[in-house]
Amino acid sequence: MVRDNPNGPSAAPMTGGVAIARACAANGVTLMFGLPGAQTYPLFDALYGSDIELIVPRHEQTAAYMAMGYAKSTGRTGVFSVVPGPGALNAAAALCTAMGNCSAVVCLTGQVPSEYLGKGRGHLHELPDQRATLDSIIKDAARIDRLADTSRVVNEAFRTAQGGRPGPVAVEICWDTMAETVAAKIEPAAPRSSAPEPDPDALAAAARLLAGASRPMIMCGAGAQDAADAVLALARTMNAPVTAFRSGRGVVAEDHALAAPPVAARELWDEVDVLIGIGSRLEMPYMRWRDMMRYEPKPGGGPKLIRIDIDPEEMTRLVPDIGIVADAGTACRLLTDRLATMTRPDAGRLEEIARARKTADRLIDGIQPQTAYLKVMREILPRDSFLVPEVSQVGFASYTGAWPVLEPRTYVTEGYQGTLGFGFPTALGVKAAHPDRAVVSVTGDGGFMYAAQELATAAQYDIGLVTLVFNNGGYANVLRDQQQRFGGRVIGARFQNPDFVAFAESCGVAARRVSSPRALRGVLEAALASDKPVLIDVEVAPGSEVSPWPFIHMAHRPSLAQAN
Fold this sequence. Notes:
This protein is of the alpha/beta class and 564 residues long. Helix content is 39%, strand content 16%.
């Protein structure tokens, strides 16, 4: 670690690998994920004996997912390193997922020797333009062309990853540049970019609109995760229900009187006259509750829309009636201050929200057996525990509110990418970031097999993740769709699984098998108490799971749709 110099940093001889490692340390990095290779040997050599802990999984994609899980669950920057070319491309699915769910991730990768850049000679791991390829799917991609620039480029990567809407950034460095030794300075971390100041006129217009509203609603996204107190204070000024779909859940605890999980929110939606979107793309009301195939640049009909978002481009992707470009917490506090003398809480709204939640609970209870399993888990797990729901039948059921999210950042999802296979490796990163808190991965057998080999990683590094594999012998969504929409012509939807218990045990991970929610209770309690990696194989009869999709795509109020 580089110690503070009261006279500022001074140049010292070091390899490019040492410079990168020290620049990361200056940015607060204490844990890194990655797989070493020829072009990144100097970086991994620099990590040897350093204060940065290294976890080496069995696949580059897992390294990126672990960094994403770290970032999403902590609000800090997750860092991983892989070789260029195939290594970076293996990580690309996780990088585009991190872009979709707004995770601050920094990818450190190599490049061909500097003399070969752009030559197309076919050097080891060469891509025609790796930087441009990555830049097309993530927030930014940079290159360290001179070792002396390492600290500046790395600092800017962290600043970009965290600034504004968080997202992934890649930094590449040529093979020879990383290996050379020159005098370099390690600068202090760059200050985070400041958020834009909210427009007072927009705040005033929003306050006037809300003061005249009778049925306002708030919808949160990932951009509201660090503004929980401010969001709740704003909601209380009007007794406005607060909802979210994926990344915004837990901003207001879903056992709070003002919380309206997705199905409850849809019960209230038809009467909403003003919607406040806070750090959210508003996918749920304007895509999933309407027509996923029809793009609306500006909502047609429905409530008036106020959007609070730090990203000004969001105001063009879905044009609101009033747009406030600002940090979520700042904008909510200023709006709350204005409303203090303009409106007062409507006590009747609490009764409406309670009725909607009661109706939603009754409807969701029909999603079986998924809801029963989720209820058992929620009863056992502490409020601050983390759930990482894979793209699976039980994961989709958790979207509806069947899993109440009780604290910010504790529900770690894949965002709009819907990336099959993200869950288990991402959960490993969440647990690595929070070794003293309960973390559970809930996955289907299909998604789990994308990274099943990482059970060996969990065992090697003693990552005490509890993984529930819901074993139904196929891709249940595909199977259901083929049976219901394609005349029962089933292709590629069923498969034969290994014995997950035996497989886990062969990797050094304890494993059990259950076939009912009742049986899960004791097994899950023992697994959590062990603080060791544990796999639980949950046997589910193929085709037996009730579809959660009627409660995700809700064009109509679900209680009325069910009645008809």
